Amino acid sequence: MGTTEGDELQTTEASPWMRPFVPPRLLRNAHLQTIVGNLLPRSDTLPQPETQLIEVERPTSGGASFVLCHCHWQAAEVRSQRLTVIIVHGLEGSSSSRYVLGNSARALAAGCNVIRMNMRSCGEGEEFSPSIYHAGRSGDVAMVMAELARTYLIRSFALVGYSMGGNLVLKLAGELGAAAPPYLKAVVGVSPLMDLAASSAALHEPKNLLYESRFCREMLKRFRRKVELYPGLYTADGLDKIRTVRQFDDQVVARYGGFTGVDDYYHSVASSNWAQNIAVPTLILHALDDPFIRMTGDTRAKLAANPRVMLIETRHGGHCAFLSLEPGDAGYWAERTLLDFLLATVEG
User: Can you list the pairs that 96-101 forms with residues at least 24 positions away whose Cβ atoms lie under 8 Å?
Assistant: First the structure.
């Protein structure tokens, strides 16, 4: 499903939860949506989480790799029966990213268990993983689900991923295909990074210099800390010459992630490769004016041909923002929409 004039989306009997996205007139610029959405203060109403380390890779020369999860549970007597929503952040985000907190508060208030998952080395989990995170580690999400299902007897999971996290959860759903475990009930990708090569090229456009500079700066800062923690595994040689995300992905991610080069990395991990195999109910929210996430025509065709996937593309919305003044959205259309989708799909 695409957009119509004025961003009005058609509500059908099959999707009564879907409402139009109507951005404020002053926030119909993609960059304003993106920047304001990233900086807008959010009140953290979440209770203190339970912290859990989950092993995602057995010991190598640097030791085992763990991811740090912040868990918000419903009462013990109903915990296993409630939908458990695992939320995965984007590039250089964490379990404390604003959109992660916002989605978590909504889902918890709706009666769901919520897991705020950090990718490897992200958030406060930096010291718990000798290996680096990247857009292809979908298996980490699968291992988190499996461990929580085993430990807490959880019967139903939904995966929500933003940007790079969106690539992770969509890649996992496609890799699992019809063999997905029965406890995986639904998947959501918001502004998902499905086509890495096209999006990396868009990020390098002059109009996106602010975004690329920020990502590059944060990625280099994190990797330098990784070098300090694991000097036997990594080196800082050549880092001063890195100016773009593509260069970082080539010289760091591809080098230490087991890829032959940046092109191999971008192609190998793109969830678009598996889009046609997704077999669980899936919602994808994407703004056509996203400054740097690009979705190719081939990927759109795969999604459109898959009856288990609903692709909603809005005219405005920026990157992971979708700021709205509509009643009930509380400012965040995507957060309300994806939760309504999950509740209607899993519980309806």
Answer: 96/123, 97/162, 98/38, 98/40, 98/42, 99/37, 99/162, 99/190, 99/320, 99/332, 99/335, 100/162, 101/42, 101/44, 101/46
